[in-house]
From TrEMBL:
Class of this enzyme: oxidoreductase
Organism, scientific name: Dyadobacter chenwenxiniae
Stored Gene3D superfamilies: 6-Phosphogluconate Dehydrogenase, domain 3, N-(1-d-carboxylethyl)-l-norvaline Dehydrogenase, domain 2, NAD(P)-binding Rossmann-like Domain
Top-level taxonomy: Bacteria, Pseudomonadati, Bacteroidota, Cytophagia, Cytophagales
This protein's encoding gene: gndA
UniProt-annotated catalytic positions: 182 (proton acceptor), 189 (proton donor)
EC number: 1.1.1.44
Pathway(s) the chain acts in: Carbohydrate degradation; pentose phosphate pathway; D-ribulose 5-phosphate from D-glucose 6-phosphate (oxidative stage): step 3/3
InterPro entries recorded: 6-PGluconate_DH-like_C_sf, 6PGD_dom2, 6PGDH_C, 6PGDH_Gnd/GntZ, 6PGDH_NADP-bd, 6PGdom_BS, NAD(P)-bd_dom_sf, Pgluconate_DH
Domain 6-phosphogluconate dehydrogenase C-terminal: 178-466
Subunit structure: Homodimer.
Keywords from the UniProt entry: Gluconate utilization, NADP, Oxidoreductase, Pentose shunt
Protein name listed in UniProt: 6-phosphogluconate dehydrogenase, decarboxylating
Recorded catalytic activity of this chain's protein: 6-phospho-D-gluconate + NADP(+) = D-ribulose 5-phosphate + CO2 + NADPH
Length: 468
């Protein structure tokens, strides 16, 4: 019984997380049916660390210290249930199973309950940061049984990214909270990626070359937009194709893929309900990107002369920067508002101040904005929407005007900026004392006797409309 931690599934993420743990002094063992992956794990280990790969699950379980701590990194869905089924005859009461993949939180909830009856701890943990993050410091979002968390906490704190010495991992709530937080993280990820692609579309329309785009994004990453996604975007513009002499970005098909976590965020937001319109838009735009043939046809039908900008390039770049900043804040605001609501409605007790702290390093949506949000939650830990924080409000107001003029320009120039538009529309509605939805209530009552409330007299009313 020598190993501290076991991993099932030695794909890129599983292998790199184990190697990261080993580098921090833990003895680790991995299981994969594919012998080549076991060999790859052992040969990638840092000399002097204790790393073993086996192709028999029972062998791995036998070699683990009790209570056993076993993580799986396998595709979401049935494979997770299959692994649980194969583990059950091998484990004992008190052992801890961790699902580190992108599982849907309702599956996690079901598994937590099922395994609780068998006195086995099950934790759903979100891991973000891709291959590099897993190897050198991911952001880790654990949820589930707090007692089980204490068993794995030393390892997770050791391997997590660090910001100012603080590990980017913390206990983020009960039951399926870890996977819920990761799902919303991915929703925000989709939104920000969409917004960056719209910013790129505008700058490309204005004639910037890939070299210039690189410089713009690089400069942005040194300022208020500092973030992982802006940083990698700057790099992308420099990458040359190895099959032709083009820049690689220019020969990549515009059909965007997705594995579904953004869609889950939108679907679940509607269940709550919470408005996450920028995330919804980002999902819809990836879907629309797949209609390549129809888009080509429609482009023919609606073709006309383009509208150019008279704004000098420097000013336009500034406007795009501000609009991207504005819409990024709205994206986080929507995601965090969703977590706020879900935490209560689904009884997960998600600590939002800890969520933003965990997201400050290692994950795909890490950005300097999270420092501002951390301050906001330090002032009020129970903040239903970060747009209600004074400091956030000042930041938003400082870029509001440029956001409006950029969106107006994009609308005239026929550049699709659905994410930016959606962020502004949300903002304008959110800060409306009175929306125009009184008319919707009147219509509902008109055709369906759905009743309405009044602003002056309490109670529920119905009118026989149109009979005057
Ligand atoms: C992360 C990423 C990661 C993965 C997404 C991509 O936090 O490290 O979110 O989990 O890259 O699943 O999702 P799509 O394939 O849906 O874009």
């Amino acid at each position: 019984n020598v190993f501290d931690f076991g991993m099932i599934g030695l794909g890129v993420m599983g292998r790199n997380l184990l190697l990261n743990m080993a580098d921090h002094g833990f003895s680790v063992i991995g299981f994969d049916k594919d012998g080549a992956k076991n060999a790859a794990l052992e040969s990638a280990a840092t000399p002097g660390t204790t790393v073993k790969g086996v192709s028999e699950l029972a062998q791995m379980i036998e070699l683990l210290q009790r209570p056993r701590k076993v993580m799986m990194l396998v595709p979401a869905g049935q494979p997770v249930d299959d692994v649980i089924a194969s583990l059950l005859p091998l484990l004992e009461k008190g052992d801890v199973i961790i699902d580190g993949g992108n599982s849907h939180y309702t599956d996690t909830l079901r598994r937590v309950k099922y395994l609780r009856e068998k006195e086995i701890h099950f934790m759903g943990i979100g891991v973000s940061g891709g291959e590099q993050g897993a190897r050198t410091g991911p952001s880790i979002m654990p949820g589930g049984d707090q007692a089980a968390y204490e068993h794995v906490r030393p390892m997770l704190e050791a391997i997590a990214a660090k910001v100012g010495g603080t590990p980017c991992v913390d206990y983020l709530g009960k039951e399926g909270a870890g996977h819920y937080v990761k799902m919303v993280h991915n929703g925000i990820e989709y939104a920000i990626m969409q917004l960056i692609s719209e910013s790129y579309a505008i700058l490309k329309h204005a004639g910037l070359t890939n070299q210039q785009l690189h410089e713009v994004f690089k400069t942005w990453n040194e300022g208020k937009l500092q973030s992982f996604l802006v940083e990698i975007t700057a790099d992308i513009f420099l990458q040359m194709d190895d099959q032709s002499d083009a820049h690689l970005v220019d020969v990549i098909s515009d059909k965007a893929g997705s594995k579904g976590t953004g869609k889950w965020t939108s679907q679940d937001s509607m269940e709550l309900p919470v408005a996450v319109s920028v995330i919804d838009t980002a999902v819809a735009m990836r879907t629309l990107s797949g209609y390549k043939d129809e888009r080509v046809q429609a482009a023919e039908i609606y073709a006309k002369d383009g509208y150019g900008s008279s704004t000098p390039t420097d000013e336009l770049v500034q406007e795009v920067q501000d609009a991207l900043y504005f819409a990024t804040i709205i994206s986080y605001a929507q995601g965090l508002a969703m977590l706020f609501q879900a935490s209560k409605d689904l009884a997960m007790d998600i600590p939002l101040p800890k969520v933003v702290s965990v997201w400050r390093g290692g994950c795909i949506i890490r950005s300097s904005l999270l420092e501002i949000f951390t301050n906001a939650y330090t002032q009020t830990s129970e903040l239903s929407n970060i747009l209600l924080n004074q400091e956030v409000a000042e930041v938003v107001k400082s870029v509001e005007e440029n956001t409006r003029s950029l969106i107006a320009f994009a609308a005239k120039a026929e550049i699709p900026v659905a994410g930016l538009m959606s962020s502004l529309a949300y903002f304008d509605a959110y800060k409306s004392k009175r929306m125009a939805t009184n008319l919707i209530q009147a219509q509902r009552d008109y055709f369906g006797a759905h009743t309405y409330q009044r602003i002056d007299i309490p109670g529920t009313f119905h009118t026989e409309w149109g009979q005057q």
